[in-house]
Design brief:
The protein contains twelve helices and ten strands. The chain is α/β, with parallel strands linked by helices. The chain has one domain: TIM Barrel. The strands form two sheets. Strands 3-4-5-6-7-8-9-10 form an eight-stranded parallel barrel, surrounded by five helices. The chain has a two-stranded antiparallel ribbon with strand order 1-2. The structure holds NADPH dihydro-nicotinamide-adenine-dinucleotide phosphate (NDP).
Length: 336
């Protein structure tokens, strides 16, 4: 942590009693593909030193390797189990089978068999007795929502997880799951993990609006920098070594090179300069400014990025109504 970075802030995960650091650390793309075991340990230790208490993961990240690396780091770091919160997410499955023998009950599903077996695999890879937060990584329209809600409830009752939630579900689907849990007195979904940044905001700001008060929904939000687009690094094309240059995530490239969005990022740089921060810090503070957000999940391929991004804490008090309105003007018509 730089000397100028203020202490970490903590927010409750929706209406639950659990407190998460306002900025947390995720592992998608980075762990295993860009950051090795030593780097993972170093990055998690630096995050923890800065007050981060939430580390996000998923079964599917690097096909299980991301969970294995996080588990190895946690075993070496030997933090008190009360001091950190770990997540995983389930839907796509591991080792999806072959074209002629697809693993039909273990992929693209939230059926009971998959969920109960998949969580056991994650616990083993992460060397943990319990995963604090488990998410249904996408909605599964082919499994009755009752089956999924009962499976998540049972996992919590078995002590394998503490809280459950969803990721990228519609408001209607979240409401349907919540209603099943309410009706049968089961553990309710506590949190959703949506994409949320300046160019992707309607679901969080409009679609979910009723859920926050009605169900106490908390949010752990992803891709706050739109995979790096909001740092300004794609304004002159794709830099070597960046996410945009990686073959495994080539589906992101076209979006990262969007000319109008990159022009808007250039205009945001002017706002950031006036506030004495980087554009990454400005847009991260914008996400954190929304009180519905329990935790902003950061991604970093390098330690220096993590330090820079945690510096957004110092920018938070500068996100005034006037700054918000300028940011809205610059990005008008570009957000979905
Ligand atoms: P971001 O949008 O913040 O993108 C992070 C990437 O941007 C980094 O890996 C790095 O890539 C680049 N970057 C970050 N900071 C800087 C900086 N200061 N300067 C220059 N480049 C920078 O977040 P992610 O997309 O990684 O998402 C964060 C987390 O959210 C994930 O790790 C995961 O845990 C979660 N997630 C959840 C999803 C879901 O479906 N629930 C989906 C996606 C993510 P590089 O250096 O390689 O260019």
């Amino acid at each position: 942590m730089t000397h100028s970075t203020p202490p970490m802030l903590y927010r409750r995960l929706g209406r639950s009693g659990l407190q998460l650091s306002l900025f947390s650390l995720g592992s998608w793309v980075t762990f295993h593909n860009q950051v090795d075991a030593h780097g993972v340990r170093e990055m998690m230790a630096a995050a923890r030193d800065a007050g981060v208490n939430f580390f996000d993961n998923a079964e599917v990240y690097a096909n299980g390797q991301s969970e294995a690396l996080m588990g190895e780091a946690l075993a070496q770091l030997r933090w008190n189990r009360l001091d950190y919160v770990v997540s995983s997410k389930f839907f796509w499955g591991l080792d999806r089978g072959s074209a002629d023998q697809p693993r039909i009950n273990g992929r693209d599903t939230l059926n009971r068999k998959y969920l109960l077996q998949a969580v056991d695999g994650s616990l083993k890879r992460m060397k943990l007795d319990c995963i604090d937060l488990i998410y249904c990584h996408r909605a599964d329209p082919h499994t009755p929502v009752d089956e999924t809600v009962w499976a998540m409830h049972n996992l919590i009752e078995q002590g394998k997880a503490l809280y459950w939630g969803t990721s990228e579900w519609t408001a209607d689907d979240i409401r349907a799951a919540w209603d099943v849990a309410e009706r049968h007195h089961l553990h309710k979904p506590v949190m959703e993990q949506p994409q949320y940044h300046l160019f992707h905001r309607k679901r969080v700001e409009h679609e979910y609006a009723r859920l926050y008060e009605d169900t106490g929904l908390g949010l752990t939000t992803w891709s706050p920098l739109a995979s790096g687009l909001l740092t300004g690094k794609y304004r002159q094309g794709v830099p070597a070594g960046s996410r945009g240059a990686m073959e495994g995530v080539s589906f992101l490239r076209e979006g990262l090179l969007d000319a109008r969005k990159n022009t808007a990022v250039g205009e945001l740089e002017a706002v950031a300069k006036e506030l004495g921060c980087s554009v990454a810090q400005l847009v991260l503070a914008w996400v954190a400014h929304n009180p519905r957000v329990s935790s902003v999940i950061l991604g970093a391929s390098k330690l220096a990025q993590l330090h820079e991004n945690l510096g957004a804490l110092a920018v938070l008090p500068n996100i005034t109504a006037e700054v918000l309105s300028r940011m809205d003007t610059v990005t008008a018509g570009l957000a979905q």
